[in-house]
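In response to a reviewer's request, we include the raw inputs and outputs for one of the modeled complexes. The two entities were modeled together in a single run.
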Amino acid sequence: MKKSQASLEFLSTYVWAFFVISLTIGALYYFGIFDFAKYLPQKCVFPSQFKCIDFSLSPTDVRVKLANNLGEDVTVTGLQIVNDAVPPISCAPASTPFEWSHSTDKEIAFSSCTGGAYIAGERVELKISMSYFAVNTPSKPVHLVSGKVNGRVTSS
Amino acid sequence: MEGSLQAKIMKRGKRSQASLEYLLVVALTFAIIVPTTYLFYSYSRESSQEITDAQVTRLGKSIVDTAETVFYSGEGSKTTLDISIPDKIGSVAIIDGREIVFNVTTNFGISEIVFFSPVNMSAAGSSCNANICSIPELASSGLKKLKIEVISKDTVKLEII
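The model returned the following structure tokens for the whole complex.
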């Protein structure tokens, strides 16, 4: 009887300990202590043919500056921005189509961004895709290029 | 009697101190290892993306440059390139004889890396459909030999051998 009581007391002690530890970890998680992604550097990654030169994340706009390193003049036919949030970010892309000469830079803006946890001061990861065709290719096949912006949304 | 009780308490106190120290050391180790592992993993994931991009860029440029060199050497000229094809290439195709397109899968979507050739390129006859010639052998990773041959006065053929 004494042994079973001791066992029960032992178990109940550790259940409480487990409960307290779980609660503590949950609270730390809630306050973003375990969000290690915020310690990574802010980055904009695109294939080298459309090298990302700069980017900015303002509370309503997303801007990326890309360089056309294809060696060809292209026409951009579509732009899209998404993220993994539910619902994903929704922005108005720059109007397409537009011409883009080789060896020049272009600032691509997405305005009126809402949703997708796109909040000032928060760290976000956005996936940008762009479709284009080369003007000198006879059948003008459309190609897709994807990139990523990982950074903090500025306050103003 | 009192002395032995005191000794027991002392002994238990020492054991609990050892346990607490052990727990603290383990917790501290985890607190250092877990974030560090995550950060290194994230860095390496992005680096691998950049490495794939650089490898495909080098591969595409070398194919286009070699095709141009062989073309200007005249009809019947040929050469063989030893190429290393990285992972994550889904498909390779020649479009309109002037675009060689590598379909690359990245962790943020599919990207087409395109190279433009100043000379007309083609692939083995059976893989061509209308203006698109696919080269499936270029889409599997590893070391390959690519034969580049001038088959007519205006066309260079690419073929994995």
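As requested, we also summarize the result in words. Strands of chain A lie at 43-45, 50-57, 62-68, 74-82, 90-93, 98-100, 105-114, 123-134, 143-152. The interface with chain B takes residues 36-37, 39-40, 43, 45, 47-49, 70-72, 127, 129, 134, 136-139, 141, 143-148 of chain A (CB under 8 Å).
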